[in-house]
């Protein structure tokens, strides 16, 4: 059974810092990996999607990398801002022909001014 | 593009009653939608896969007679929580994958529905 873990569970940083969020998964037979942002009491916003054949994706200040063989992905946030405060979730789609997402445990990020 | 809406955004109901939650894809057609549940400070757990024109596929441990799913059209799926109990109180979120994303399976999520059963 696929298990997705995120470290750290919570992170508090001052504005302007560069930071790295980690995601690990137990079964490397994934189709793709997706990073989401969730604000309190809200739905999910898709940030980046990395297909299994790719190693990284970039969008603005965000960069996500994927090492499928080791079962790891990282989300790099450059020059963090208070507006980045949210919970970040990674999720994998297994290579089973279905579209089911298996979510990680999440990292709660707080960026203070 | 790729907007998914949910209604209502929050609902309070009494124990033993039923409540219906709607999930709509606003600017695309979705043959498949997904229903997730999220308990406080926990991650999302897939409940079921909703298929247009056919029965939903439920995850292990999810009672199909309690959580009724109807994918009535290519833009609408509904989740009905029947005979709700306080332990059903949760945040319910739906998602869909636009046709152009079928090769990547990228999913877009609705804003969620907060259900409180008293």
Brief digest:
With 113 residues, chain A is mainly beta. Helices cover 0% and strands 59% of the residues of chain A.
Can you walk me through this structure?
The complex is a heterodimer of chains A (113) and B (118). With 113 residues, chain A is mostly beta strands. In chain A, a hairpin with a 4-residue loop joins strand 7 and strand 8 (72-77). Chain A starts with a strand and ends with a strand. In chain A, 0% of the residues lie in helices and 59% in strands. In chain A, the strands form 2 sheets. In chain A, strands 2, 4, 5, 9, 10 and 11 form a 6-stranded mixed sheet that branches. A 5-stranded antiparallel sheet of chain A has the order 1-3-8-7-6, with no helix packed on it. With 118 residues, chain B is mainly β. Chain B is built from no helices and 11 strands. In chain B, the strands form 2 sheets. In chain B, strands 2, 4, 5, 6, 9, 10 and 11 form a 7-stranded mixed sheet that branches. The N and C termini of chain B lie far apart (37 Å). Chain A binds chain B through residues 31-32, 34, 36, 41-46, 49, 51, 89, 91, 93, 98-106, and chain B through 6, 32, 34, 42-46, 49, 91, 93, 95, 97, 104-112, 114.
Order of helices and strands of chain B: EEEEEEEEEEE
Mean pLDDT reading of chain B: 90
Q: Supply the helix-strand structural class of chain B.
A: mainly beta
Largest interface: A-B, 24 and 23 residues
What's the number of helices of chain A? 0
Strand content of chain A: over 45%
Query: How many beta-strand elements of chain B?
Result: 11
SSE string of chain A, helices as H and strands as E:
EEEEEEEEEEE
Given the C-alpha coordinates, what overall shape of chain B results?
globular
Percent in helix of chain A:
under 10%
Number of strands of chain A: 11
Please indicate the percent range of residues of chain B in DSSP E strands (runs of 2 or more).
over 45%
Major beta sheet of chain A, specifics?
6 strands, mixed
Number of helices of chain B: 0
- Assembly type of the chains comes to heterodimer
Using the CA coordinates, give the radius of gyration of chain A. 14 Å
Radius of gyration of chain B: 14 Å
Helix content of chain B: under 10%
